[in-house]
Model the fold of this input.
Amino acid sequence: MGGEPGARKKLDVIPRQAMGESLVIGLLIFGACMLGIYTRLILSLASIWPANAILLAILLCRPSANRPMTWLAAATALMAADLLSGSDLLASALLNGANLATVVGGVIAARLIDREDIFTPSPNNAMAVVVILVVGAACSSLAGAFVGPFLFGMNWPDATLLWFTSEFVNLAIFVPVILAFTSSNRNELRLLSRRETEALKQLAAIAPLLGSIALMHMIGGPGASSYVVPSLLSCAVIFLPFASAILTMFTCTWILIVAPLGLIPLNFDLSAESDASSFRLGVSMISIGVFMVSSINAAWRRTNEQLQHMAAHDSLTGLANRGAFMQSLSQQLAKPGHEKTSLLMIDVDHFKSTNDTHGHPMGDLVLQELARTLRSTLRQGSVAGRLGGEEFGVIVDGPQASAGMAVAQRVHAAISAIRIPTETGGNLTISVSIGLAEAYAGTSADQLFTASDTALYAAKHAGRNRIVALGDAPAPQQAPRAQVAKARKRRGERHPA
Done:
């Protein structure tokens, strides 16, 4: 599970209108039932049965779908698929009653746990999902304790265990896929990363997985299904949750289908209830283990991204902080064959008087509104940052005379149009002074910073609320100002407002 903190994607493939939603869910369950029916290899039970897992996952993701119409559509789909496959009415009713018991138990468990953030990746949320799956499988096993002896002549302990493991393995395989889908944004639904180096690592991780599957077929033995564990855990770390869940689903599904066919020499009898239960429980543990590692890894990724964002952005305005801004400027100037780069230094005029007159909360609001205006005004290729206090910077890819001045004028006009309501019923306006300079061949980030700071000082000295390019700054004031700026920079100080 991954994606934006606290946000999750809806199952948009299903309509929101009540009747259409229930009908589509019924059709999905019918298709899943037909898929499962064609894998009936052990004791007339399906090797895989995704229908219950899909219904439970949908109801977890879309609580609004939990209505009588949906349950009726799902029950109809279950019965129709069974009857079409040749089952008699009584057997179909009993088996599908056990199927619905799984979903009922899982939904009740989810309500009792009451974790609104269950889709946010974390170890605790992953454990909550496992508890839901265990409760759902346990409810099915209670029904199986009656159905197994009645339909198949099994003793009730074996029937209880077989129904539990059969339901649990299907829930463990298919529910994580749907949960990962609903908690991921569009980019996180990719199986391979867009970054070439990352994609190569992911492809390299798939190779051992395929090799371990091949070893299952070649060597076999009672522990054959565990051969895939190291490679699947590696995939859980390298891939995002959705891709990891897909790989786990295909691997475990393959094991569940081919093992009963004898294509993996397990050296035990899968027609025996106890052996079949042990086999399925082992496969479910593989899936649950990978799901837990994937959830922990997704939580780590999310926390790491938040920390990186906090380290590079100003907490008040959300713009790049001084360190990240200077790094972006250095990278821009270091690009081979880059054209001229312009730098705008922006300072809010009379900001101290705003704080003194209206209070610091209003001052914070001024800075936030200015940052919002910069984000909405600047075009792709420009970088904005808060350099400290009421001082901001903008990197423009282009020469001062054209691109730089155009951006400066657009920013100045947009900021001048800001109106912030005050407690007295009026509107607070903002004016800024802007210094503009450009980098020539060999200009360093510090040199460009000092040049634009010099132009900003000239704009403030000339009366504020204006744009001054370095070439327009009065020559006598440039040298002293540059020297003072460098000295303050060495001491870590800023120029006064």
Observations:
- The first helix runs from residue 18 to 37.
